[in-house]
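Exercise: predict the structure of this protein bound to guanosine-5'-triphosphate.
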Amino acid sequence: MVRRLPANLPPQAKAAEQRYINAKTLPEKIKYLEEFISTIPEHKGNEKMRGYLRRRLSKLKEEQDLQRRRKATGSGGGGFSIKKEGAAQIVMLGMTGAGKSSLLRALTNARVEVGDHLFATKEPIPGMLRFEDIQFQLIDTPAMFNGAHRGGAWGAQLLSLARNADGLLIVLDATDAIGQFSIITKELTHAGITLDKKTRKIEIERSNGGGLQVACTGRVLCGVEEIEKTFKEAGIRNAVVRIWGDVTKEDIVESLEQTKMYKPSLILINKVDLEPQAVAEFEISANKGAIGASASLNQGLSDINKRLFDSLGILRIYTKEVGGEPAKKPIIVKAGATVSDIAKIVHSQFFKQFKLARIWGKSVNYGGERVGSEHILEDKDVVEIRIK
Ligand SMILES: Nc1nc2c(ncn2[C@@H]2O[C@H](COP(=O)(O)OP(=O)(O)OP(=O)(O)O)[C@@H](O)[C@H]2O)c(=O)[nH]1
Ligand SMILES: [Mg+2]
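Solution:
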């Protein structure tokens, strides 16, 4: 509530006060309170009141900030989303000045501004990158920063863009590749995104009785009691747990919560012209592969499209009618896709009335080999589906 002011206020200030009192929304309240404060004459008798109103104003502004931040995090950060085009959407992530915009400019025909100051890029910008007969949509983004996962500034929008992507291109500055990578992975982890495809696997099948049964091929790197406790805390008393490979308690908690989302990624270390040792040092330290490049000198960029394709885990499949030529444009599917996945995409009738398929390509021993619906396809396979 507004305290009553001395009656000697000019009419202008009284009107402003009234508008403030009547204001319904937070932005309105802020606007009219500012106006009100500015119309109060500056003399000693009003000092206390002005002080009080200023504190009130900063409270309102804080509240507005908080609301904005909540909105950005809660909604997953609208406003940054870019319609997918091409075979896959690849989002670039990197600290300011790492060279994301320079890369987009060098790799695609997109017109982008390369910054001569920090935080140059303010919004995501797409460009198309060709690989053989397909194109990737590569997206330049505003910089990643320490604390992005808390949702402030563009953090929420940026991470939501990453979550929606088919793959990530992590761009590191060669002069601080290891440090930048650790910040980026930390932010991604907090945002529920992991770059590591687990070689181990945990399967939890709930049952109606029988307690907890754990079957593993590797080692469980924590006590059995601890596992039981973890499951009980999650409200699971009866389940069959199958574990492949070595697991830690964190892995089990993670699989219980199913929080982390895996994103295929490629790590690119830019500005190797300044730090030629950067890739070797990074690979040893992070135990991960990376490609070295220089966007400004146009070096190391020629096989990025192929490396992206390999890291995405996708296949190009060409359908063909009986007696016809293979389609020019491939269907893009995830690695591990079967003939029946293709049949579903092409037409529901092909799936429902499936009889057999003939395949030309790497997944068969000879061209035109007949296979069933569960046959697993390989990149560049040609598929001819026959129906009953
Ligand atoms: N030496 C060298 N400088 C580069 C290279 N690539 C980019 N730069 C320079 O690094 C600076 C930043 O490049 P940008 O492409 O704007 O970096 P960014 O990652 O888009 O930065 P933000 O938009 O702030 O996130 C520019 O001055 C570029 O000219 C490179 O390979 N070698
Ligand atoms: Mg930029």
